[in-house]
Write a structure and sequence with these properties.
- The protein is α/β, with parallel strands linked by helices.
- It has 2 domains: about 140 residues, Response regulator (Rossmann fold, 3-Layer(aba) Sandwich); about 130 residues, 3-Layer(aba) Sandwich (Rossmann fold), CATH 3.40.50.
- Helices cover about 50% and strands about 20% of the residues.
- The chain has a 6-stranded parallel β-sheet, with helices on both faces. A 4-stranded parallel β-sheet has the order 7-6-8-9, sandwiched between helices.
- Strand 8, helix 9 and strand 9 form a beta-alpha-beta unit.
- Helix 2 crosses helix 11 and helix 6 runs parallel beside helix 7.
- The longest helix is centred in the N-terminal third of the chain and has 23 residues.
Length: about 325
Amino acid sequence: MRLSCLVLSGVLGVMLSLVGCENSTPPTDSPEQSPRPLIALIMKSLANEFFATMAEGAEQHAAAHVTDYELIVNGIPDETDLSGQVALVEQMVARGVDAIVIAPADSQALIPALLRAQQSGIAVINIDNRLDADLLLEQQARIPFVGPDNRLGAQRVAEFLAAALQAGDEVGILEGIETSFNGQQRKLGFETAMAAAEMKVVATQSAQWEMAIANQTATAMLNAHPQIKALLACNDSMALGALAAAKAAGRDDLRIIGFDNIEAVRQAVADGRVLATADQHGDQLAVFGIEYALEAIRTGSVDRLEDRETAVDLITAESLLNR
């Protein structure tokens, strides 16, 4: 009897010892999982095919990296809705995202909201349209830019156009939004190539990146300057507007170039209705920004990020045949 009690006492002691160990040590086979980073992509108008393509590329990347991060895609109704894009930034800050990747509709107007996002601990990556460097310097702040050299890309397209013209020919330029850095740079690239080839830029006017406005603007240019031999559009939507204006005016001889390589213009280049465009790889541009944001979050180097230049390629009927 005494032996049985001793055995029972020993068993109970072992059981209590095991219970004590189980309560004091967390299980090693189920570690606590850290949440996935939440990335917000904020673009310009999703009605523009270029940004719709950008969004699609980003969503495909997110689907392929579903365990790495979560993506929110936002855009504004049109590229002049600056207050709408500022509101999107503020909404993403309130939601507590880890990073904002943004193609700003204006190079200056978005800076205050983006700096407030940075101050909240959010990594901010600028894509597509570079923010104003002087204003950032004035604010003693920096936001890294990931994207192509717009001026160089536009210059290459315009040089290709120049080879199809004669020195002294008249040309017109359809600008983007005048406060947009990429619009300014593309215009400068066009002007540089035209000056080098001794062309006459007889008209330059903003069509605000929009096809319908470009149609009206190009029509007015052709009426005011009937000797114009070419129209240089700072994006493909405006090139399509210029193409419609040329068709209505019976100007099948008019040379037109664009920038962005959207599907409709790519087909027009292949058909010979548009001479050339530039491909800044819109389907990957947001992806480049997202990957940079994830790298910054992972390494804790948000405050030390440098700009990254991405490729921009000349697209012609010949290059499309060789693809």
